[in-house]
Design goal:
The complex is a heterotrimer of chains A (about 350), B (about 260) and C (about 300). With about 350 residues, chain A is mainly alpha-helical. In chain A, about 75% of the residues lie in helices and about 0% in strands. Chain A starts with a helix and ends in a 6-residue tail after the last helix. The mean pLDDT of chain A is about 90. The chains are: A mainly alpha (about 350), B alpha/beta (about 260), C mainly alpha (about 300). Chains A and C meet through α6, α11 and α13 of A and α4, α8 and α10 of C.
Chain lengths: ~350, ~260, ~300
């Protein structure tokens, strides 16, 4: 073992206590959950504000999961709303028609999970054309998929056809949204900082070189699409039970565009960026509501200006330290220290 | 027994024969150079060996295992790694990540373990990170471990590409024009470096090169390609005097 | 005439009628697809605002016909000119600063511009609007076949515009420069080709054709609303991809294929299946020929 790895272990041991990071996440999780539970139980937050927070959470899930494909893998999927639709319909059908009415409350997480699994299965199917097709052509495949989902839903009378589906109870509460949001962010962060995630990144950088460096690109693409669509499905289920009404037109290309805007606003290949993008976009839309239709004129204008002056979005290709796992932070810390000691070492 | 054995390898692009009837074998621990004029099919041979192109005909055997038909990552895992003529490192990723990715075939955790950070995940990540840091230290790249790869100077990018290739633990290393863009002084250093790699990592090396000084200096054996076919093979000293080779390079009738 | 013969004639008439419908829809798709493909060829950028420029074309047509009460030809020319100017302005203001930025930023900007155009038009006045009839629509009856003059005009005019475009691209100096830039983006500027001018010209022609398509669409289906460009735009984009994006003749072929497929599906299935079948066919085509009909696969350089 070299000196470097010895020093690495020594630092790893003490790093947590040396920085405040050790306490941030536990405190944040407990406080957040407590806040959400209190808000939904005692209604000290009015229902309108609660609903906005619920949308913020759902949009975070959608944005972070789409960023996996569009940011980390560097593809351009425009079909995210399609996965969301699958999740929304599967979960709603379960709670409305399958589960016994008395137990719907308890079985709700199961319905959401089933929505995610349903969407993940479809995501698996979409991953297959991505083996051969890339770039603009893959974008068309995802677009076509989104249109097909919408069209199929419109033609099945059992799910309400174009009129849609209603009768869902308002099961999406703030604590549940908090839980699923944290879970999706955590899982996607875990994936990104594993060797599979590095595989995803290497496909964006250079697919052939990545394959030649022993990365099983097909496996990586399947993982990325399945995970991404799974969480889109989760978001869809939550969305359906927040609004208590869904129809196929809600999940058309405009919805996908919304998610795309949040991803690129926040910045590609950045979890913190996606969270920032989703929060800013959702809240700004609410704040500007008094402007009426002119807010929909203003928002795209701001997006265009942002793209011109900051083409990579707010956090493009950068990550807030809070989301970087400890061991990666430590190697970075070590490197900075060495650099300080011998500034011309690398020259 | 030869490490790599290529038998009657042929490859056509839309009717054009890029490689025709190419035979080759290399013993463990040899260092063989492949030379030839531009467009002679040298890089195509590398692409065929590593599975980027699928051979039209013929067989490629590594330790008696057929490689034709396998995907590039399967071939890499069976023990062949390569570098590229134009550097193809992952530019936006850190130097450390470039090397960690190349361990993809060696990780022992499943996707589920990675997603939930359970089971073997932590131990394996630690192991891979340490292996990578050690490798970078050997290549004197550890100071730039967290630098983006695109920020490295050209020479270090070349070095990183070789380090990344070695991280896949190859038995056979294919170097595609490692001296491209180097001055004579650097080429001498590179010669030492390649010899040293062969010793330290006990790999067999095939080298594509234009720089005669380099090839003549370190290769034990040479194969000369022109128009996709072998026109000469043998010791560097023999090749130097071979009239056919001169003709291929200079394009004039030198043979008497 | 025997009974059998009659039904045969009847079905022939039906087929011919549907073919005309397909040509009409297809020529509109093709005109819009040309704009996508030309911009893609020269900038490798998908101008997702193009569908909304098509809508603006219909909107201009409405403004000119309603307020200025001009006749058909000046309306057409003014709409085309207006949309072309708008296209060039958008390129200069929004896309030009992003030429060196990541490709995706330009795409997102285009989506933003598209949303802006939609919502701005929506904010201006209430919708939907009805276009006043610019042309006397006469219907000729040949046997049991009915031909509407409008349909003929749409088809003929589109074909004429496409022929003019083909001439410009293949035979003129500017067209040669366009082809050269789409062939190689690094060398051509060094040869003294005024790249910015050529790009502006490409945008002007491409969006102008989109504007013409908007006007024709508005004549054929005389109700306009700000969101009409979304679906038509995406379908035209699909036409461009089916033909092989970046390839001008491919875009024309793709447009007619998509038009034919949609009309055929609508003839045999309930109309709600139209999108489903069209997109499924697209998926199958892309799996069989991932680079479109006339597109060429990018060689993998290693």
């Amino acid at each position: 073992m070299t000196k470097l790895s010895a020093a690495y272990f020594a630092l790893l041991k003490h790093w947590q206590t040396l920085t405040g990071y050790k306490y941030f996440w536990p405190v944040f999780l407990i406080a957040g959950l407590a806040f959400c539970a209190a808000a939904s139980a005692s209604e000290f937050l009015d229902l309108y504000l609660q609903l906005i927070l619920i949308y913020v959470g759902i949009n975070i899930i959608l944005t972070v999961s789409l960023n996996l494909i569009n940011g980390y893998m560097g593809e351009f999927s425009v079909g995210h709303a399609g996965f969301m639709a699958v999740g929304a319909y599967v979960a709603s059908l379960l709670t409305v028609h399958v589960f016994p009415p008395g137990a719907v409350n308890i079985l709700f997480p199961l319905a959401i999970l089933a929505g995610g699994v349903g969407a993940a299965l479809i995501g698996f199917l979409v991953a297959i054309p991505s083996f051969k097709t890339r770039g603009d052509y893959l974008a068309i495949v995802t677009l076509a998929f989104c249109m097909i989902v919408k069209s199929v839903l419109e033609n099945i009378d059992a799910v309400g056809g174009p009129r849609g589906l209603l009768g869902m109870e308002k099961l999406t509460t703030l604590p549940w949204v908090f839980f699923w949001t944290v879970l999706s962010v955590w899982v996607i962060r875990n994936l990104v900082y594993s060797n599979f995630g590095r595989g995803v990144l290497s496909i964006r950088e250079d697919e052939i070189a990545s394959d030649l460096m022993s990365v099983n690109t097909r496996q990586v693409k399947i993982i990325a699409f399945v995970v991404s669509s799974f969480f889109a499905g989760i978001a869809g289920g939550l969305f359906a039970h927040a609004l208590q009404f869904i129809n196929p037109r809600m999940f058309d290309i405009l919805k996908s565009t919304d998610i795309l805007i949040m991803v690129y606003l926040g910045g590609i290949a950045s979890i913190s960026g996606s969270i920032i993008g989703a929060v800013i976009y959702t809240i700004l839309l609410e704040i500007l509501r008094p402007l009426g239709i002119w807010r929909m004129v203003l928002m795209p204008l701001m997006l265009v200006l942002l793209m011109i002056y900051r083409p990579r979005g707010i956090m493009g290709l950068r990550e807030a330290r809070l989301f970087i796992p400890l061991r990666d932070l430590v190697t970075e810390k070590l490197w900075r220290q060495k650099k300080k000691e011998a500034p011309d070492a690398s020259a | 027994m030869p490490l790599l054995e290529i038998f009657r390898l042929t490859h056509r692009f839309a009717g054009l024969c890029a490689v025709s009837d190419f035979n080759f074998s290399i013993e463990p621990h040899e260092l063989v150079g492949v030379i030839g004029p531009n467009g002679a099919g040298k890089t195509t041979v590398f692409n065929l060996i590593t599975g980027v192109y699928k051979a039209s005909e013929g067989s490629i055997k590594l330790n008696d295992r057929e490689l034709v038909g396998l995907t590039p990552h399967q071939i890499t895992r069976s023990g062949i790694a390569r570098t590229f003529q134009n550097i193809r490192i992952f530019k936006e990723l850190s130097v450390l990540d470039n090397v960690r990715i190349a361990h993809y075939g060696q990780i022992a955790y499943t996707p589920a373990e990675a997603l939930l950070h359970i089971g073997r995940f932590r131990a394996e990540e630690k192991r891979i990170t340490n292996l990578s840091l050690d490798l970078l230290a050997i290549f004197k790249l550890d100071d730039s471990a967290n630098e983006k790869a695109k920020n490295l100077p050209y020479g270090l990018q070349r070095r990183l590409e070789i380090a990344r290739a070695l991280a896949t633990r190859p038995a056979l290393l294919l170097l595609d024009e490692p001296a491209a863009g180097m001055n004579p002084n650097e080429i001498i250093q590179l010669m030492e470096f390649i010899r040293w790699i062969r010793q330290t990592f006990s790999v067999t090396i095939i080298l594509i090169e234009h720089q005669m000084r380099l090839v003549m200096g370190i290769c034990e054996r040479l194969v000369v390609l022109d128009f996709g076919a072998t026109i000469a093979a043998g010791l560097p000293s023999e090749i130097q005097k071979n009239p056919k080779v001169m003709e291929a390079y200079l394009g004039v009738e030198v043979a008497s | 005439m025997t009974e059998q013969r009659k039904t045969f004639n009847h079905s022939m008439v039906y087929v011919f009628q549907q073919a005309l419908n397909a040509l009409q829809l297809g020529s509109i798709y093709a005109l819009i697809a040309l704009g996508y493909t030309m911009v893609y060829g020269i900038l490798t950028m998908i101008n997702f605002a193009h569908g909304d420029l098509f809508m603006i074309g219909a909107f201009f047509c409405f403004l000119i016909a309603f307020y200025l009460k001009l006749s058909f030809v000046p309306t057409l020319l003014l709409s085309m000119l207006g949309v072309a100017c708008l296209g060039v302005i958008i390129e200069r203001l929004a896309y030009k600063p992003l030429r060196k930025a990541p490709r995706v930023s330009a795409i997102i900007t285009a989506l933003g511009v598209g949303l802006f155009l939609e919502n701005f038009t929506l904010a201006l006045s209430p919708y939907p609007k009805h276009i006043p009839p610019l042309l006397e629509n006469t219907t000729w009856t040949v046997g049991s076949l009915s031909l509407s003059s409008l349909q003929i005009i749409v088809i003929v005019l589109s074909l004429v515009l496409m022929l003019i475009l083909d001439f410009i691209v293949q035979r003129t100096k500017a067209g040669m420069a366009m082809r050269a830039i789409s062939w190689d983006k690094t060398i051509v500027p060094l040869m003294g080709v005024p790249v910015n001018k050529i790009i502006s010209l490409t945008f002007a022609i491409g969006t102008g054709l989109g504007g013409a398509a908007g006007m024709m669409y508005a004549l054929a289906y005389p109700v306009i609303d700000p969101y009409m460009g979304i679906m038509v735009g995406w379908k035209a984009f699909i036409s461009a991809v089916v033909g092989g994006i970046g390839n001008i003749r491919g875009a024309m072929i793709g447009g007619f294929i998509l038009g034919a497929v949609e009309i055929m599906v609508a003839a045999f299935f309930p109309s709600t299946y139209r999108d489903f079948v069209a997109f499924t066919l697209l998926l199958i085509l892309l799996i069989v020929r991932p680079y479109g009909i006339l597109g060429k696969p990018q060689p993998q350089k290693v």
